[in-house]
Amino acid sequence: MVLDAIDAQLLGYLQQDSKQTNKELSNKLNLSVTAVYERIKKLEKGGVINKYVALVKKEQIDKAFVAFCHIKLIQHTQEYVVKFEKEVATINEVLECYHISGDYDYLLKVLVKDMEAFREFMVNKLTSINHIGSTHSMFVINEVKHTTAITI
Q: How many domains does one find in the chain?
């Protein structure tokens, strides 16, 4: 889908605050409310806008301990890869999972309450997945930048 400059501006505003009204967006973009509505619908229908979500502040829900886990599978067969991906997708503590290149096969972003909860996650959930050969975990000391906005 080809985006023009107004689409890019509109997406920028929506990524800052998707609860803005079409009237507010129309004033910022110098367009009619109907034109803004039609552009948003076009972006949704074209798959550029995937969904709308509320971003929860992790500290407010007592889940501010962030860890990144490298995972190496014992074998790289299709069966092991599919099984691992299916199982890890069901674990609530795993926010993100990426199949990566390099020394490890997967990178997980894990969110829990504290180190004790992380240990519980590792012992009772992650290591219960078959076919994991090794893991390597790193813990976040300070979040320097976190954004969900993509520059258009």
A: 2
- Residue 90 scores a pLDDT above 90: yes
Is residue 131 assigned to a domain? yes
User: What pLDDT, on a 0 to 100 scale, did the predictor assign at position 1?
Assistant: 86
- Pair (28, 86) in one structural domain: no
* pLDDT given for residue 5 in this prediction: 96
Domain residues for the domain of 116 are 58-139
pLDDT at 130: 86
144 contacts 136 by C-beta, under 8 angstroms:
no
Stated pTM of the model: 0.88
